[in-house]
């Protein structure tokens, strides 16, 4: 049986041979793309075509008496071979007909990129033209090339919808061919900048850069959420600056970062959740004076990096004061923190409720990543992280029935709930990252087990897509591990499982993680892809006949999900080297600081 990638390719070729597409237009398109191929690329395609011809004629050794009887069949075979070659060229055009783009030149080395005064910052470093075709030399890696190109194609399709129906706006509504605004700052475009660069989509990147240069302004009377705008906008601009060396993005980051500073003007130094970037005022939500723990402790990577690049310590000082205060606070439970903290008193609220899901998740992620970013010198961050992992193991882990899946539940005033948000699927990757940087090997075993659980959250759903929230059955007579309440059956195109698959594959090289990711991508294409462009979140992962589109493509689908798919399918560990970069919680890579910092 053919592997999935080759089955898909053969299906395409068969569709071509049976006339399921416009033959004349396809031949013209094939000829145009053929003329664009390099001599080496043409040689490889002709070599493959020759092999198919030889194989075809080998099936019919006698050509004279039986020619008439077999004419139609032979012509079909020849037509099939020709269309197969055309389909090959169509799916792997000159700009992408390779196993993986050479990364040398596409990224400034981390040490160089972290120098704010480097002359190289004056202009962007463009990705190297991928003219070298390795497929003929290493056919065993064809699935890798196919999958990488499938991610690029998915991005182009999503970008097509955004460009046609939501250009310059925050997020696409692909079904209604419209858009929705959150901050009015081109959120999807900024979130996707470094994804385009990593995927080598130069044309799309250049048109986005032009919009940033000519249209993006922060002189808007609008309230933005401190956390969401930091991880998506500030993080996206800083990351793109480091990858490209283009000073435009650093200047925009400086402007935006400075406008977020009023959020920290609180009695407790715990920042407000919202800030008006034009008026310079900030406030908590209308219904409470609390901020969530994830909001106030998952902005540190970005503000610390902004201080390092600008030489102005104020950004780093305000976010590290938050970490110092949280480190000293009472109300933790074995290193686990409550979900809320009050901006007036600086104290935890809703004490007794502990989760790794919404409102607390990235607190734990950023403990580890700040320690890595800073060169592993800030011991308080490491201590808090290690203690939290011990608290998770002691209080939140249980096994399901019948498969015995290890899952992370929640604790509410001593009562355990078998509820696990999809957001928690960041944890396997974070644990694996910690082991890579020297933390206990037992964390990797836990990462593997939790990765299997997150995989099952997809596999056990009829669409092959995970719900937003799962409840795990623990009774001995259960027939299925994962149960989903009607209100939790939606899928928002989230990245966390693919993110962890990337880390697990990068560190273990176990190809099952790539296979799992490929299955998820196919499910996204089957149930969330909108023909006119874009992908939509859906309401019901349990109904493959009517998943019910929600008509929204979150910016993180381009900023995170597709980026992690690409990195998962790539075998090149130098594409975002994890000894040189650390991802923020929106998948924007920022450099690990040199030891001299």
Strands, helices and their partners?
Blueprint: H1 4-17, H2 23-36, H3 39-58, H4 67-91, H5 110-113, H6 142-165, E1 171-173, E2 178-180, H7 187-199, H8 202-214, E3 223-225, H9 226-244, H10 247-260, E4 274-276, E5 281-283, E6 290-292, H11 293-297, H12 300-310, H13 314-328, E7 340-342, E8 348-349, E9 353-354, H14 361-373, H15 379-395, E10 397-399, E11 406-408, E12 410-412, E13 415-417, E14 419-421, H16 427-436, H17 442-459, E15 469-472, E16 482-483, H18 496-508, H19 512-527, H20 555-569, E17 581-583, E18 589-591
Helix pairs in contact: 1-4, 2-4, 3-4, 6-20, 7-8, 7-9, 7-20, 9-10, 9-12, 12-13, 14-15, 16-17, 16-18, 17-18, 18-19, 18-20
Mean pLDDT: 86
Silhouette: globular
Order of strands across the main sheet: 3-4-5
Report the radius of gyration as a whole number of Å: 26 Å
Distance between the termini: 54 Å
**Tally of DSSP β-strands:** 18
Helix content: 40-55%
Give unreliable regions as ranges. 1-21, 59-78, 89-113, 118-136
Largest sheet report: 3 strands, antiparallel
Beta content = 5-15%
Classify the secondary structure makeup into a structural class.
mainly alpha
């Amino acid at each position: 049986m053919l592997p999935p990638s080759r089955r898909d390719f053969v299906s395409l070729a068969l569709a071509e041979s049976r006339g399921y597409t416009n033959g004349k237009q396809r031949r013209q398109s094939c000829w145009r793309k053929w003329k664009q191929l390099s001599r080496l690329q043409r040689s490889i395609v002709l070599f493959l075509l020759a092999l198919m011809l030889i194989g075809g004629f080998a099936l019919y050794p006698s050509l004279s008496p039986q020619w008439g009887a077999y004419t139609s069949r032979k012509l079909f075979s020849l037509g099939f071979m020709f269309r197969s070659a055309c389909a090959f060229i169509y799916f792997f055009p000159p700009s992408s007909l390779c196993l993986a783009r050479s990364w040398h030149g596409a990224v400034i080395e981390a040490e160089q990129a972290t120098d704010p005064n480097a002359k190289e910052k004056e202009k962007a470093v463009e990705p190297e033209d991928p003219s070298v075709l390795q497929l003929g030399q290493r056919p065993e890696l064809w699935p890798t090339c196919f999958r990488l190109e499938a991610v690029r194609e998915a991005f182009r399709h999503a970008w097509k919808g955004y460009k046609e129906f939501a250009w310059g706006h925050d997020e696409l509504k692909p079904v209604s061919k419209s858009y929705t605004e959150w901050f009015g700052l081109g959120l999807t475009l900024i979130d996707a900048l470094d994804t385009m660069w990593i995927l080598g989509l130069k044309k799309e990147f250049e048109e986005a850069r032009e919009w940033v240069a000519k249209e993006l302004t922060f002189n808007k009377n609008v309230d933005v959420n401190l956390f969401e705008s930091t991880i998506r906008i500030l993080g996206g601009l800083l990351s793109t600056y480091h990858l490209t060396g283009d000073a435009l993005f650093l200047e925009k980051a400086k402007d935006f970062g400075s406008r977020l500073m009023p959020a920290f003007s609180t009695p407790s130094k715990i920042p407000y959740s919202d800030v008006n970037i034009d008026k310079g005022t900030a406030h908590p939500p209308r219904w409470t004076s609390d901020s969530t723990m994830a909001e106030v402790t998952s902005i540190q990577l970005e503000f610390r990096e902004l201080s390092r690049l600008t030489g102005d310590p104020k950004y780093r000082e305000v976010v590290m004061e938050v970490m110092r205060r949280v480190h000293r606070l009472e109300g933790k439970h074995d290193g686990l923190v409550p979900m809320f903290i009050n901006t007036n008193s600086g104290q935890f609220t809703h004490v007794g409720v502990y989760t790794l899901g919404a409102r607390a998740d990235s607190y734990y992620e950023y403990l580890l990543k700040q320690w890595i970013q800073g060169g592993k010198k800030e011991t308080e961050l490491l201590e808090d992280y290690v203690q939290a992992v011990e608290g998770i193991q002691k209080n939140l882990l249980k096994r399901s029935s019948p498969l015995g899946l290890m899952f992370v539940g929640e604790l509410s005033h001593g009562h355990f709930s078998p509820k696990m948000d999809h957001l928690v699927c960041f944890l396997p990757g974070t644990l694996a990252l910690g082991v890579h940087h020297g933390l206990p090997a037992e964390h990797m075993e836990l990462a593997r087990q939790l990765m299997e659980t997150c995989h099952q959250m997809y596999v056990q759903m009829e669409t092959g897509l995970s719900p937003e929230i799962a409840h795990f059955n623990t009774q001995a007579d259960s027939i299925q591990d994962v149960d989903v309440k009607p209100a939790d059956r939606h899928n928002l195109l989230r990245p966390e499982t693919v993110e962890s698959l990337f880390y697990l594959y990068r560190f273990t090289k176990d190809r099952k993680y790539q296979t799992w990711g490929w299955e998820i991508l196919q499910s996204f294409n089957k149930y969330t892809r909108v023909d006119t462009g874009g992908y939509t979140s859906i309401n019901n992962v349990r109904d493959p006949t009517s998943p019910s589109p929600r008509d929204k493509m979150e910016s993180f689908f381009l900023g995170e999900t597709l980026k992690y798919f690409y990195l998962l399918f790539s075998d090149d560990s130098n594409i975002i080297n994890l000894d040189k970069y650390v991802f923020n919680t929106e998948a924007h890579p920022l450099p690990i600081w040199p030891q001299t910092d």
